[in-house]
Design goal:
- Helix content is about 35%, strand content about 10%.
- The protein has 17 helices and 12 strands.
- The strands form 4 sheets. A 5-stranded parallel β-sheet has the order 2-5-6-9-12. Strands 1-10-11 form a 3-stranded antiparallel β-sheet, with no helix packed on it. Strands 3-4 form a two-stranded antiparallel sheet.
- α2 runs parallel beside α8, α4 packs parallel to α8 and α14 runs parallel beside α16.
- It is globular, with a radius of gyration of 26 Å.
- It starts with a helix and ends in an 11-residue tail after the last helix.
- The relative contact order is 0.11.
- The N terminus is likely disordered.
Length: about 525
């Protein structure tokens, strides 16, 4: 039980988690009113400790509260609360022993200086997206657990009994509910410009800023008035870790996210581990971190390579995913560390402002190979593109796969008759609809290997990101409540933010049998095979 307290109550914004799930019930409204009164009373009694960073953050959240709830008194009280985190937080078992008291209100007196964030969650409750667990009653359970089926201490049993009741509900498929704008249907997120955050030189050093900040404010205000749910923004690896390995600068993004909170907009943050400037619609150039490019100068095989040995520096090759080439770290390690650093900076906004983290998996942040590089002029629509498997790491994997298949002669590179970037499908021996080599045993072997590497790459990166977002101490929310045969109740939790990935919309040559452009991008999808 004590472990549960550490993993759930000490890490999750308690009021935020419960409020966002039970907000549609009559008792939730009464609970919310009572909680806000207790919060006001607590804040008024709290001593004011000057702390610029916390005061600034709470002011932003308080402004968001005012805009949502129109409660200036509550907002003023939140600003008044400036204390540092209370490191002597009451563990769950001590709260449970305080019988005759409501579990959540008791915890409210024990909140840290993120009381403002809890209040923001309270204010945003009616606007937050549903998470599926409704109709709170009384619980006769003898156990609260995250995958825990033992018996809790007797004192905890006595305190929990008749405190919370919940049926066995699976929350994986919540019904469609109104978005933050109050409208029924699918929430809309608007992509911010790629160069929303930019690096400039000031006083002899490079700093990250919000570009055209006044215009950004006007745009966010218009988006709010238009009723959109929120915005999506690239968090560029080349900007945030530009100074060196594990040296992160998220200061400009903090300012951006606070602005979004003020305007009542949610954020989908994209961990962009690629360079900008080489894709359709790119309006700026943002390279990979210089210290990564420097390593590539000595070892160009860290980049995707075509059969002409052209190196694509938009992103790192999946062939070296687990090779520690970067100051003792592999690419998977670097992506994990970056996502972890981001979560450490912004987990106090998870679930209320930041609702999704999308992890970049390739060029343009998409799970694919850079088979159609338009930015440097090698490819023009509707060319079939080229396979990207000629760096030494991918070739080594191909040779091993060919030997395992009993055909070592298949391990010397991609198909020899697949044409070039701007070929048409019927001009090649590999992609032609009738009798093309994509239908042969070799074709199936190569395409399965090529797309299989992409799938394993996604599993590695997304698995690392999920590990970071699920680690102890991260804010969590209830995913499902299951009642066991012995009468115990098991609570399953998930992160307060959704984990996302991007797939490419490779539509040209779709009406041909081979779907050539999809095959070179890594999607083994043909007229006769569903690759998705």
């Amino acid at each position: 039980m004590h472990q549960l307290g550490a993993q759930y109550w000490s890490s999750t914004r308690k009021y935020d988690t419960i409020s966002s799930r039970y907000r549609h019930t009559a008792e939730m409204k009464a609970f919310q009113d009572g909680h806000c009164k207790r919060l006001n009373s607590t804040l008024q009694q709290a001593p004011a400790v000057p702390h610029t960073a916390h005061r600034s953050r709470l002011r932003v959240i308080a402004q968001a509260i005012s805009s949502k709830q129109h409660s200036s008194d509550l907002a003023q009280d939140v600003v008044r609360q400036r204390n540092e985190y209370d490191e002597d937080r009451a563990p769950l078992h001590r709260l449970l022993q305080e019988s005759k008291q409501e579990l959540i209100p008791a915890a409210a007196d024990d909140e840290d200086d993120d009381a403002g964030i809890a209040a923001a969650a309270a204010a945003a409750g009616p606007y937050a997206r549903p998470l599926g667990l409704l109709n709170v009653g009384r619980m006769s359970s003898s156990n609260i657990s995250s995958g825990y089926s033992g018996s809790p201490p007797a004192a905890a049993q006595a305190a929990v009994a008749d405190t919370i009741s919940a049926p066995s509900i699976d929350c994986d498929s919540p019904p469609i509910e109104p978005s933050a704008s109050g409208r029924q249907g699918c929430p809309v997120f608007v992509m911010l410009p790629l160069d929303t955050v930019w690096v400039v030189e000031r006083d002899g050093r490079k700093v990250a800023i919000l570009k055209r900040e006044s215009a950004l404010d006007a745009a966010l205000n218009l988006l709010r008035k238009a009723g959109v749910e929120g915005v999506m923004v690239d968090v560029w690896w080349g900007i945030c870790e530009r100074a060196g390995p594990r040296v992160y600068d998220f200061s400009a993004y903090r300012r951006l996210f606070h602005k979004c909170a003020v305007f009542g907009l949610k954020v989908q943050a994209v961990m962009s581990f690629h360079a900008a400037g080489g894709n359709v619609g790119d309006t700026c150039k943002i390279p990979l971190p210089k210290w990564v490019l420097d390593i590539g100068e000595g070892n160009p095989d860290i980049f995707y390579t075509d059969k002409q040995m052209h190196r694509n520096k938009e992103c790192l090759s999946l062939g070296c995913d687990e090779v520690p080439l970067f100051w003792g770290r592999s690419p998977v390690d670097m992506y994990r560390d970056f996502t972890d650093a981001f979560a450490n900076q912004f987990d106090y906004l998870f679930g209320t402002v930041i609702t999704e983290i999308t992890v970049g998996l390739g060029p343009a942040g998409e799970l694919r190979y850079p088979s159609y590089p338009e930015g440097d002029g090698r490819w023009r629509f509707p060319g079939v593109g080229e396979y990207q498997c000629c760096d030494k790491y991918m070739l080594a994997d191909l040779r091993a796969a060919a030997r395992a298949a009993g055909h070592p002669e298949w391990g010397h590179g991609g198909p020899h008759d697949a044409g070039h970037y701007n070929s048409r499908s019927w001009e090649t021996g590999f992609f032609v609809s009738q009798g093309g080599n994509w239908q042969t045993e070799y074709g199936h072997f190569f395409l399965s290997w090529y797309s299989g590497l992409l799938v394993r790459h996604a599993r590695r990166i997304l698995g690392a990101a999920a590990e970071v977002l699920n680690k102890p101490g991260r804010p969590r929310m209830i995913k499902a409540v299951k009642e066991l045969e012995n009468g115990h109740v098991v609570y399953e939790f998930q992160p307060m933010v959704q984990l996302g990935a991007k797939l490419a919309g490779v539509h040209w040559w779709f009406k041909s049998r081979a779907h050539a452009a999809e095959l070179t991008a890594g999607y083994y999808n043909t007229r006769d095979r569903d690759g998705y």
